[in-house]
User: Which sequence fits this backbone?
């Protein structure tokens, strides 16, 4: 993304403001000196992560104590990296408290799974990852939905049949069967440049005027107000 913005002529100062990355990191990316933008700092912990997770699951939540136990087995890393790992673990648990017994509303889960990953907060990202890990079929449906959305937005008529076939046996089966019944209209929507957006906009405006009068206006008054507002 940074390289694309540079190719488009975006100044480094604006890239820093838009991405939240440091100026030095942006310059390194532009010069080809950095690829691992999301490099983790605690690389010395990598061989010890399974042990840390076992200790954490066993109830040890103090960074100093965790480091002491690792050092007894030969760990040479600093207290800082262990403390940072423990802090992230605590924040992850606070983001989605375990054992609450209260499932998320279906509407919220649907929104989280259809919103672009770049627009999710850290807590929502953790929650989505847990949902998809627990429900692989839901994760597959999300990927199919993303591909279907991309097909519609880019009017790829030729990809329709393939998208229908790969999705009809999963969680989107009922949706796909509905599209099959009206497939000619779907193909026309992908092929033709026309849109009913103007019609829907006028309907929405009419409903807004009707709600302003608490639904009590007759046809003549609604017509007069609609024309006057045009």
Assistant:
């Amino acid at each position: 993304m940074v390289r694309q913005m540079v190719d488009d002529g975006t100044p480094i100062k604006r890239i820093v403001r838009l991405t939240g990355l440091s100026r030095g990191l942006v310059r390194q990316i532009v010069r080809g000196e950095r690829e691992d933008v999301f490099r983790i700092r605690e690389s010395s912990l990598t061989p010890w992560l399974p042990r840390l997770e076992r200790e954490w699951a066993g109830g040890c939540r103090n960074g100093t104590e965790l480091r002491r136990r690792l050092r007894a087995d030969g760990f040479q890393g600093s207290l800082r990296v262990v403390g940072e790992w423990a802090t992230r673990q605590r924040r992850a648990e606070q983001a989605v408290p375990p054992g609450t017994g209260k499932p998320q509303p279906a509407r919220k889960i649907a929104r989280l799974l259809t919103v672009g990953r770049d627009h999710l907060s850290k807590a929502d990202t953790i929650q989505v990852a847990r949902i998809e890990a627990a429900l692989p079929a839901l994760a597959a449906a999300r990927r199919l939905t993303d591909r279907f959305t991309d097909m519609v937005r880019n009017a790829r008529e030729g990809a329709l049949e393939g998208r229908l076939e790969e999705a009809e046996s999963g969680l989107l089966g009922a949706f796909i069967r509905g599209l099959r019944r009206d497939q000619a209209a779907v193909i026309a929507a992908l092929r033709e440049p026309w849109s009913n957006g103007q019609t829907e906009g006028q309907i929405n405006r009419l409903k807004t005027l009707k709600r302003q009068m608490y639904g009590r206006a007759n046809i003549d008054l609604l017509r007069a107000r609609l024309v006057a507002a045009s």
Remarks:
- The chain is about 65% helix and 0% strand.
- The longest helix spans residues 136-153.
